Amino acid sequence: MTRSGESASIPSGTGVHRVGRAATLLIVIQFAVCAAVTCGEEVIPRELHAWGRFEPGATKTERTTAQSFGLAGDVEAASTTERRTTLVAVDEESYTLRVETTIEAAGKTVNSETTITRGYDDQERSSDGRGEHRLIAAGTAAIVIDQLSYPCNVYESISTDQVERRVSRLFYGAQPPNLLKVETTHVPLAGGAPSLTSYDVFSLDMPWRVGAETYAGAHVRIVRRHPKGSVVTWSIVVPDLPGGVVSSSSKELDASGRLLNRSTLELIDYDVPGDAGE
Description:
single chain; mainly beta; 2 helices; 15 strands; globular
């Protein structure tokens, strides 16, 4: 896990990292967000985003271990996925990732590679221009975390692909990890009941070890609820590292509460070319 100019071995420092780049740009970010809302520009400043704040070449490698369960509660299938994600392009409106994936399951190994471009509302941008996408500045709000109130600018993102229409409200503040809350409604284009996803930061500036280093992180809960059940994920987000998420655990339940699937994710490597603001 390295930054350019560092040894390839895991660093041995013991200090707590506190989002150097994001903290350095705090005043600039606050002005940029306020200016965007005031002027009605449909843009989220890239410095607020978990990938947008980095430069091309930043990478992360993560490992996910997953299990599926049968009616009797026994494990019916298991898999291990290793995913290397590289930031290949970034500008003021979007970022592009190259994702290399290796899945091991049932004695077989499957490799794949894809390239994804998204805006800073995390909605995918179609290369052929198909699908609806709008981003609207929607005023301000305050988010309470650990009994403290954090002012946020609110954006409404509306997007449609071949499967569903998504309407999201994103709450961005100056406090890292910046994205403090998301509320999304998913409406199937084929008809049927909508599903809801909530993303909430519960704690800020919590210490988290990555290798030999201690970083300031946020505890995040993501809940997806739909007519057939729900998926609950708890994540650790470290804004100083590419992509933010360094650890997570997830479980999927059916409508009766029976466990269907569960998984854990861990960051196993990363690289940040140049100085990310330490």
